[in-house]
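If you are new to this repository, start here. Below is one unmodified record pulled from the training split, so you can see the exact layout before writing a loader.
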Amino acid sequence: MKLSVIIPVYRAAATLNRCVESVLSQAVNGLEVILVDDGSPDACPQLCDAWQLREARVCVIHQSNRGLSAARNAGLDIAQGDYVTFVDADDYLSPHTYQPLLDEMGDADLLEYAIRDRLTPDDRTYTDMSAYWLESQAYLHTYACNKIYRRELFASVRFPEGKVFEDAYTLPLLLRQVRLLKTTSKGSYHYCDNPQGLTATARGRELAMLLEAHLQSQMPIDDRYYLHLLNIQMDVFELTGAEPVLPLRQLNPAGFNGVEKLKAHLLNLLGINRICKLSTFIHRLWRSH
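And here is the target side for that same chain:
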């Protein structure tokens, strides 16, 4: 088995067939598709079973609803491929995506590829994961879906159940094992906006988990990455009122422009607590008008 494609399935009856068809149409020898029905209350269980009856390359797991992490983990537990990748049931792939990416892998443990209209990575090879994390700003695109992994990376790693933004928790753990990583402009993953999805509906509790994932990652932090974390911290404070947990760092304003430069100056002048309070005050004042 060459490539295992794991597709968690929950409330995706309208898009599941498009997703599965786009994967099965890939010209890859040794392809297996693992559909994990995570207790979906719609027609997804029946759709999954129909695909398994129709296609020998499809395997179905039915489980009670335990969330995206548990669904991905269930797929990993039975995956047989040398490589593994993930596709969300709302999304789909362009034709002829996977085989050129597999050809590109070579000795790489992980390959990141393009998301249509969202992300086009440079064609680069990394042996230093800190350089990958900071130079490509990988912390902004920790998504599981646009990456192909050597399956052995998951021998001791699983997605954290009970957490949202689970990709941000998991990618740093995988990077600790990666010796060679490639990014490529090839391929095309089609991400489809879901107004009920986590990105659109995340509130204070969810954003607090995202900040926690980054602070636990043990990845290096430069000024630009820190400013990204500061933005998350300010949102968490505004939505929850919880005491900030981001450690204070002095930034070099010369490395920024516009609003970011002003924010760096204010952080250096006011500190974490006061800049969070100022941001909350400004947003409330703006909304009141």
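Two things worth knowing about this chain: The mean pLDDT is 96. The first strand starts at residue 3 and ends at 9.
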